[in-house]
Design a protein that fits this description.
CATH topology of the largest domain: Rossmann fold
Number of strands: 15
Distance between the termini: 44 Å
Low-confidence stretches: none
Number of helices: 24
CATH class of the largest domain: Alpha Beta
Strand order of the largest sheet: 2-3-4-5-9-10
Helix content: 40-55%
CATH superfamily of the largest domain: HUPs
CATH architecture of the largest domain: 3-Layer(aba) Sandwich
Number of domains: 4
Structural class: alpha/beta
Radius of gyration: 23 Å
Strand content: 5-15%
Amino acid sequence: MKIIIDNNSKWETTQVGDYLVHYIGLYKELLPLLKKISGLGGVPQKESIDCLLDKLPMPSAVIMESKQSIIAFTDHFRCYPLFYTTVNGGAISNSARKLAKIYSLHNWDILSANELMMAGYVTGADTLIQGLRQFQTGESMIVNKGDNRINVSRYYRYSPAPEEGKSDDDWVEELDIIMNGVTQRMIDRANGRLIMAPLSAGLDSRLLVCKLHEAGYSNLETFSYGPPGNWEARGAQTVAKRLNLLWRLIATSRKKARQMFWAPERKAYWNFSDGLSALPNFQEYYTISKLYSIGKLPKETIFINGQTGDFITGGHIPKILKEKNANVRTLLESITSKHYSLWKNLKTPERLEQVEEKILKLLDVSIDAKLTSGELMSLYERWECEERQAKWVIHGQRAYDFFGYDWQLPLWDIELVKFYQRVPIHLKLDQRLYHLWLEKWDYNNLFRDFNPTVWRWPRATLVVVPLAKVVEKILGKNAKQAWYEFFFYWGHTAEHYAPYSYKEYFDIRSDIRNSIALNGRTWAKENYLPVELIDVGQ
């Protein structure tokens, strides 16, 4: 098996013992682990590797080679994806496109293509291309170079297992201790560098900025984005002002967004970031591109954001799974209704059946299994963590990689994640524990009674809201929704729709979930996806 490293990235190479090591991540955190692996010698057993990898710092990924073996792994949430093929002797790489090109892998996987158009990403170890595989969360690979035998295993899976017997106050106290540890690790990794923190009116980014401020980290700046005058940015500005932090608004412009979207640089970014398995994120690219163009950020700047505290803390658990009559069918519908809805006309019975079969396989559960509500919720969280969060939400960090910046996701700190795996259901639902702790801490009076107004409709478009209420009163809820659809093109996320004409949006407005659907269609056309999958909304 060969190793193919795309040098158009921040991967580095070093020698550790008998191994040539290709890696991305903080070397000082990786080195003790690399030395232990190197010390195993020969062709290590997967049990020996997996035991060590549970301490793997995030974000990171490693490919290491000796005369006898190749060992490769990603962190618990595959923040930096790896890809491999077994065609023609096999190869492993940090670039899906480079691997596909070198090994002439061009045949589309139709089920995966359907997933991409319906959800925005490909689940499991599949990619859009037959014969091309992606590492999953918490996965490792050991290759015996003597016989080219490949052993792929999971050293970690997100598996909530609630504990009982502790009071709510005890859980709040433990969370406080853990968050102090998370903060210290943020500071240690930043090591005095400029921290740029995307700041919204939400809890997660506010929490991280406040923790850094509380700890006395002085080299800290904040920014928000959106149309001029948007209410969420106003809330973020208020937070920054109370903390006496530099804040800037990256004002979005429909004209600029349209220009950037259809420019060659955007296409280069998409090719860099898609991994032939997930739709690239235009919003992050647009924002970081504008920051980058300012030219005032040091090259060593590190970005720290709050993605995605709402998931970790229990905010995504469907309450319907708590019902007494909930079953595996309920679980499947909870997943497909939320996560496979970019294009409504793609949700045919045939496609849904194929998707559901794959979900059951990934979760290793049968449709007629008798499961408790707790078990169903645990499986839902596992699926969303390993698929949507890892392959879509965390995947958005590729924008920072593209522009050469470092980044951290403190709310994905493995100690914090494992803590929340133990939290009882009653404290996870509606993020109850999270809110209890924030209200008790209430740093600088920014949590208990601070609830900034967040409007979807900026400036003059605010008139849409009261008129919608009139429409609802006269014609009903469906008419109200249709009314919003007419104007959503100019709403809070107007720059996301800007690359497309209003007529293009208007004709398909009821068929799409959001602008990501349109981006998916654009990606499909640019990459010559099969026509039956491209002709959505035509």
